[in-house]
Design brief:
By secondary structure, the chain is of the alpha+beta class. Helices cover 58% and strands 16% of the residues. The chain is built from 9 helices and 8 strands. The protein has a 4-stranded antiparallel beta sheet with strand order 1-2-3-4. Strands 7-6-5-8 form a 4-stranded mixed beta sheet, with no helix packed on it. The longest helix is centred in the first third of the chain and has 33 residues. The radius of gyration is 22 Å and the shape is elongated. It starts with a strand and ends in a 5-residue tail after the last helix. 10% of the residues are buried.
C-alpha cells in the first residue's frame, strides 16, 4: 500500500499562513462581541463601559486560543495520510474518522482551480480531499487519472465562490437577533439565526473530514441558539418589552 503525506516544505510555513488568515476573523468576532454587549447594556451605559472588559479578556484568551488552534491544526496536517491499495483509496488523520472509498464506488474526481483533488463516493459523506501540498503531487495525479477521468472544477454556486457573503449574512442574523428592538424584526432575526445555526451544526457534525474535538466543541453553539430561542419566547409571551 503506497502512502503519501503533506510535504514538509508546506508544514514549515503553515503556522504563519494560518495566523495571517485568522487575525481578521478574530478581530471581527471581538468587534461584534463589543457591539452586541453594548446594545444590550442598560440605558446610559456607553461602549467604554464594556470595552475594558472585552479588551482584557481578548488580550488573555485570544493568544492562548490561537496557540492551541495552530498547534492542533499543524498536528492534524502532520498526521494526514493518503493511501492507495489495489482497489481502495483511504484518507487517515489523527482524531478524525477514516474515510475509505473503493475505486468502483468513486462517483467523480474533481480537480479544483487551486489544485486540490476531491473524490466523492456514492455516500455523500464519503468525500476525500487531497490537498495540493501533498508530496508526490504529479504521481498522485497520474494514479487518480488511472482510476477515473479527472474533471475540471464545475462552476460553483455564488455562496461557494464568495463564502464571505454567507459569513456576513450569518453574522447579520446574529447581530439582529440580539440587538434589534422591534419585536417582529427581533423574532424574525432570531428564527433566521436558529435555522442557519441548526444547519451549520448538522453540516459540521456529519462531515467526516472534521476532527472529533472540533465536532464536540460545535455543541457550544447550542448556547447562543438557546439564548435566541429564549428571546423569542420572552417576546411572544410579552415578558420582554422591546
Amino acid at each position: 500500500m503506497k502512502q503519501y503525506k503533506i510535504s514538509r516544505e508546506f508544514l514549515r510555513t503553515v503556522n504563519r499562513k494560518a495566523l495571517i488568515k485568522s487575525i481578521p476573523l478574530l478581530l471581527l468576532a471581538c468587534a461584534l462581541g463589543i457591539f452586541i454587549s453594548n446594545a444590550n447594556s442598560p440605558a446610559g451605559a456607553g461602549i467604554m463601559d464594556t470595552f475594558p472588559l472585552f479588551a482584557a479578556a481578548a488580550a488573555i484568551l485570544l493568544p492562548i486560543g490561537m496557540y492551541i488552534g495552530l498547534k492542533k491544526s499543524k498536528a492534524l496536517l502532520e498526521s494526514y495520510t493518503i493511501s492507495f491499495a489495489d482497489n481502495l483509496v483511504m484518507r487517515e488523520q489523527a482524531n478524525t474518522p477514516t474515510v475509505s472509498i473503493y475505486f468502483n464506488e468513486i462517483e467523480y474526481i474533481e480537480k479544483k482551480n487551486d489544485g486540490h483533488f476531491v473524490l466523492r463516493g456514492k455516500d455523500n459523506r464519503n468525500i476525500i480531499v487531497i490537498p495540493r501540498h501533498i508530496e508526490e503531487y504529479d504521481e498522485i495525479s497520474q494514479i487518480l487519472e488511472g482510476i477515473r477521468h479527472i474533471q475540471a472544477e464545475a462552476k460553483k454556486p455564488l455562496l461557494e465562490q464568495y463564502p464571505i457573503i454567507y459569513i456576513i449574512a450569518y453574522l447579520a442574523t446574529m447581530v439582529g437577533a440580539f440587538t434589534v428592538t422591534n419585536a417582529i424584526l427581533s423574532v424574525t432575526f432570531c428564527m433566521l439565526f436558529l435555522g442557519v445555526s441548526i444547519w451549520n451544526l448538522y453540516a459540521l457534525r456529519s462531515n467526516n473530514n472534521i476532527d472529533r474535538k472540533t465536532k464536540r466543541l460545535a455543541w457550544l453553539t447550542l448556547l447562543p441558539m438557546a439564548s435566541a430561542l429564549g428571546r423569542i419566547i420572552l417576546v411572544l409571551s410579552g415578558y420582554q418589552q422591546m
